[in-house]
Every structure is written in structure tokens, then in C-alpha cells.
Amino acid sequence: MTKISVVVKNASSSPASSLIESTSYQLGYIEMDKSHDEFVELVNKLVIADNTEFVNLFQDLQHHTEMHFCEEYLLMKKSNFPALAEHHSEHQRVLGQLAYFRARAGLGHIKLARAFIREQLPFWFRTHILTMDSALAAHLTR
What we know:
This protein has 142 residues and is mainly alpha-helical. It has one domain: Up-down Bundle (Four Helix Bundle (Hemerythrin (Met), subunit A)). 72% of the residues lie in helices and 4% in strands. The chain contains four helices and two strands. The chain has helices at 30-48, 51-78, 84-106, 110-141; strands at 6-8, 20-22. The protein has a two-stranded antiparallel ribbon with strand order 1-2. The protein starts with 5 loop residues before the first strand and ends with a helix.
């Protein structure tokens, strides 16, 4: 059984606290669950990072996400996941956003990249887990 509960704090909450609290969003597919935990950890580190750390951590987040999406793509392809095209398209869209905001941060536009991390990414993550990833996990574990 899939049990999901992702708490996303208000963007105005204290920057010293975690932005995403993953209480129990386990999808029942160990590899995906582990990767999601790592994603949450990276996002929460970005929230409290100084500007130098932020740029480096953003690169780590982008790399982690690229690897995770590649692994998911292979799982979807191997298992003949019916929504592969839609899921892959969503991954490509998010990777484009990560590349854009990482480039902006690298040019010194840290505030813009921080706003993306605090205001957009956590809500995308929650929605993606509750919809696309939960469907994929259910497909993989049936």
C-alpha cells in the first residue's frame, strides 16, 4: 500500500528550518524512496546555505535529479509504463528549469534561484510524488 504525506512549509517560514519535511511519503519502491530522501536532503541544505555553498549545492541537486530521472526513465521503459511519455516530458521540463536557475545562480543571481528553490520546487515535488511517481511505483510493484 502506498502511503504518502509530504509537508511543504510556507515559503515565509524560517530559513533555518527545513523547507520540505518528509514524514512518510514512501512509495513502496526502495530505489525511488531513497532517491526522494536524497532530493529532500539537498533541497533543505540549499535553504540554509550561504551564497557560495548554494551554487555548489544547486549543482549537486541538478546532478542528483538528472541521475534519478535517468534511472526512472529506464525503469519506465523496461516495465512498459503506459505514461512514460508524459512522465519523461515532465522530467525534461524540470531539468530545464534546474539548468536555467543554476546558470542564473552561477552568474550571481542567487535571489532568483533561491526563490525557485523555496517557492516552486517543493510544490512541484509534492505534486509529482502524489501523481506521477505514485502511479509509477504502483505499476512497478504490482
